[in-house]
Write a structure and sequence with these properties.
Layout lengths: L1 H23 L6 E7 L6 H14 L3 E7 L6 H12 L6 E5 L2 H8 L8 H7 L1 H4 L2 H6 L1 E2 L2 E2 L2 E2 L3 E2 L2 E4 L1 H7 L7 H13 L3 E4 L3 H16 L1 H9 L7 H14 L11 H9 L3 E5 L3 H9 L9 E4 L6 E5 L1 E3 L8 H11 L2 H11 L15 H12 L1 E4 L9 H17 L2 H14 L5
Helix pairs in contact: 2-16, 10-11, 10-12, 10-18, 12-19, 18-19
């Protein structure tokens, strides 16, 4: 009997090691870890800070930084799709938390459930409950969020606004009141870049036009894109575009931000990775070198997105991936990454003393504002809708036909299962 009990205990211990082995074997890992992301150039230092921490903890692991450049991950997602469908997944890949992952690779049964890691690391308490719900389904939790970004931010240089005798607009009517004056001075009122930044601008304009309740209703199917409210949002967007630069399609988001920094443009609506760019690359001090406010008409609302990483089924170096994910969700990893990235921590116990004034401001707003999800960055809709929406945007940029855009958006919503 004793031998039987001992055998059972040994078997149970072996099974336990299979589940928690990576955490227990910290420092004894070897082989490779391929990290697939679109964090390059000015966003590279934040990723490198995480890699440095990982290599220090696991010196025998060779980290392969498989970065694919391209704004908002457009190019990276195309490469990832080829690899995932070809049965050659990277060890772990960057993805926007929410429907971008769940509606695509989780739905296709290509991801491992990370509930075990969340419980092991105490993340069920460390992350806000609403965020855990967003990155999970009834069947599991699918990614580890490394940050919180804000989408609906308008950026400017305070000294330039003082020179022009204007203030940051609180509404789009405020913007339309000062835009002609700015234009007469030979300055672009609102800097814009390539297509995905138009999607980014659209969501802030639409939020201002619709309000948060109707914005949320778009993604549950309770409000149609071709409803009077939906068409009105496109009409407002068309009016905003009249005050943007003609060469937008040829610019990166950094170049559009440079226009504001250099005084060639007054404002730019961009996510708060722009804060990381201006403070880290441009060496500008938050508050004096650059200023910010909620995008016009969205005060009291925080449109968010979160970058996250998951564990693909069939990852070549699974144990190394679990250790990577453990680092991403840790307080140490989060507070090393986010101050450089221009984002705030997804954890509730972040050390705000290591963050700049913008991040402290964003963290305060995140704690009190109405939270809504970003379309352009994968929270509210699946990747199929996002890909189709890019075509709708391209059509609108050429035609400026609000009714046609509303009808086209509703068609792709129905095609991609929104509201079903």
């Amino acid at each position: 009997m004793k031998k039987t009990i001992v055998a059972m205990l040994v078997a149970m211990a072996a099974m336990l090691l299979l589940v928690v082995g990576p955490a227990q074997s910290k420092g004894h890992l070897s082989g490779q870890l391929e990290i697939f992301s679109w964090w390059a150039g000015d966003e590279g230092p934040a990723l490198q800070a995480l890699i440095d921490l990982y290599e220090k903890a696991h010196p025998n692991v060779e980290v392969v930084n498989a970065t694919v450049t391209g704004g908002s991950g457009v190019n990276a997602k195309a490469v990832l799709k080829t690899r995932m469908l070809g049965g050659e997944p990277p060890d772990s890949f960057q993805v926007h938390a929410g429907q971008e992952l769940i509606g695509t690779w989780v739905k296709a049964d290509r991801m491992e459930d990370l509930t075990f890691l969340f419980k092991e690391q105490g993340w069920m308490e460390a992350f806000p409950e609403g965020l855990v719900e967003l990155i999970g389904t009834d069947a599991g939790i699918w990614s580890v969020p490394v940050n919180i970004h804000r989408s609906n931010v308008i950026w400017y240089v305070p000294a330039n606004l003082d020179k022009w005798g204007i203030k940051a607009p609180e509404s789009w009517d405020d913007f339309f009141a000062v835009a002609p004056k700015i234009k007469e001075a030979g300055v672009v009122p609102l800097a814009l870049a390539q297509n995905w930044t138009a999607n980014h601008l659209w969501e802030s304009v639409a939020l201002a036009s619709l309000g948060p309740d109707n914005w949320d209703a778009l993604w549950t199917g309770k409000l149609a894109f071709d409803s009077p409210e939906g068409v009105k949002a496109w009409e407002l967007f068309g009016k905003v575009l009249e005050f943007t630069n003609d060469d937008a399609s040829s610019l990166s988001w950094q170049q559009a931000t440079d226009m504001v920094v250099d005084g060639r443009a007054a404002f730019n609506v961009m996510g708060d990775w722009a804060a990381g760019y201006m403070s880290t690359t441009k060496k500008l001090a938050p508050g004096s070198g650059f200023g910010w406010a909620a995008a016009p008409g969205t005060g009291g609302e925080f449109m968010f997105l979160a970058d996250s990483f998951g564990l693909p089924k069939g990852a070549p170096n699974r144990d190394n991936v679990v250790a990577w994910l453990a680092l991403l969700g840790s307080k140490e990893g989060s507070d090393a990454f986010n101050p450089l990235k221009g984002s705030i921590s997804a954890r509730t116990d972040s050390d705000l003393s290591v963050y700049n004034d913008y991040a402290k401001s964003a963290s305060a707003d995140f704690g009190k504002d109405r939270i809504v999800g970003s379309l352009a960055h994968g929270v509210t809709a699946n990747e199929g809708f996002m890909n189709d929406f890019a075509s709708v945007m391209e059509m609108f940029l050429k035609s400026r036909n609000a009714e046609a855009a509303g009808k086209a958006a509703q068609q792709i919503a129905m095609k991609n299962g929104i509201g079903k």
